[in-house]
Amino acid sequence: MNKNLYNYILGIADNSLILGQRLGELCGHGPSLETDIACTNMSLDLLGQVRSYYQYAAKIAGDGRTEDDIAMLRKEHEYFNVLLVEQPNTDFGYTIARQFLFDVYHFLMLTELEKSTDLNLSAIAKKAIKEASYHKRFSSDWIKRLGDGTDESHERIQAAINDLWTYTDELFHQTEADKAMVEEGVGVDVTKLKDAYYEEVKTVLETATIEVPESKYFQKGGKQGIHTEHMGYLLADLQYMQRTYPNMEW
Amino acid sequence: MTTTEQHIDPKLVKILESISDPEIPVLSIMDMGVVRSAVVENGVVQVKITPTYSGCPAMDVIGDDIKAALKTAGYESDVELILHPAWTTDWITERGRKALEKYGIAAPLEAEADKDVLLHGKQLVKCPQCGSKNTRMISQFGSTACKAQFQCNDCQEPFDYFKCLK
Question: By C-alpha distance, which of B108, B114, B116 is closest to B89?
Answer without folding.
Answer: B108
